Amino acid sequence: MALVEFTPQLRRFVDASSCQCEASTLREALDAAFAAQPRLRGYILDEQGHLRVNVAVFIDGRRARDPRGLSDPLRSDSRIHVLQALSGG
Predict the structure, then answer these.
(1) How many domains does the chain have?
(2) 30 inside domain
């Protein structure tokens, strides 16, 4: 099963527990995580269902290529890391 993991920064706002799921695309994996914790969706996706600009997703150590359609393919044992980009000045 694919494993979706979230950075600890998200835990300040919402339960961002890891999620194991059967998924063949990034969208399916994220949808499974959102089904378990619906409030998480608003922190990860914008109103059009695309990754927010301040969110980066890595699949098996490589950055996701389709932040809009979330169609990146997954293996059955893929590890997905969802990170919020940090900024400062």
Answers:
(1) 1
(2) yes
2 within 8 A of 28, measured Cβ to Cβ: no
Q: Across the chain, where does the E strand assignment appear?
A: 2-6, 19-21, 55-59, 62-63, 79-84
Is 58 strand, coil or helix?
strand
Q: In which domain, by residue range, is 40 found?
A: 2-84
Q: Give every CB contact of residue 26 below 8 A, 6+ residues apart in sequence.
A: 57, 59, 64, 66, 70, 71, 72, 74, 80
pLDDT tens, 32-78?
999 999 999 999 999 999 999 999 999 999 999 999 999 999 999 99
* CATH number of residue 23's parent domain: 3.10.20.30
Q: Tell whether 79 is covered by a domain.
A: yes
Looking at residue 85, its pLDDT comes to 75
